Amino acid sequence: MKTDQELFWKGEFGKNYIVRNNDEELIASSTSFFSRILNSTSDDISSVVEFGCNIGINLVSLKRLLPNSSITGVEINSSAASIARKLGIAEIVEDSILEVNLDKKYDLTFSKGVLIHINPEYLVDAYRRLYMHSNNYIVIAEYYNPSPVSINYRGHKNRLFKRDFAGDMMNLYSGLTLVDYGFVYHKDPIFPQDDISWFLMKKHSV
Questions:
Q1: What distance in Å separates the CA atoms of residue 91 and residue 187, rounded to the nearest whole number?
Q2: Any idea where the domains of the chain sit in the sequence?
Q3: The CATH number of domain 4-203, selected from 3.40.50.300, 3.30.70.3340, 3.60.15.10, 3.40.50.150
């Protein structure tokens, strides 16, 4: 482990997060969320990896939308990884987005509500894995802010950071272009999300 933030999610707080986020309504909302994003892709998606999959809600949603796809999840918390593995729909790798070494590339790599919890000093490590393991699309779905800011998170300092993550990645990698983006409001009457901004990028050879 490199950071206090990693230890935070690997431990008891990460286990408590499981209890707060195990709900069929969340899966329905997540399925709607990813349906919007996939509608903006022009190529077949046959393989997906999520960095920070928790108990696999997003993986379930994507399997419903892409039933023939090969899906992988990377998760730092052992309890969450165990639950996701028992779903039987994805390969689950118990590791940190900052340190994991995968042996293949995927049509789509993504993070959702994960980069916001990473120590900003190590974000480049997360960006590198999202980029290097993609052979086509990258999705970042996080809390957006035009400039970096730290937010108090459930009484904890330095555990949630907002910034322009997608902008960072496109500045870092000239081979990325923005395909589409959107926002889902927490008071959406049908399929709410937690004020998440999403950005779909396409990777080109340079």
A1: 33
A2: 4-203
A3: 3.40.50.150
Q: Which pLDDT belongs to residue 151?
A: 86
Under DSSP, is residue 199 helix (H, G, I), strand (E, B) or coil? strand
**Kind and range of the H or E run holding 161:** strand 156-162
Token pair of 109 as six digits: 């790599």
Q: Which residues, listed in sequence order, are joined to residue 70 by a DSSP beta bridge?
A: 47
- Those residues of the chain that have pLDDT short of 50 are 9, 13-15, 18-20, 206
**Other CB atoms within 10 A of residue 174 CB:** 9
SS3 143: coil
The answer for residues whose C-beta is within 8 angstroms of residue 173's C-beta and 6 or more apart is 127, 131, 203
The pLDDT of residue 7 is 57
Q: Is 153 helix (H, G, I), strand (E, B) or coil?
A: strand
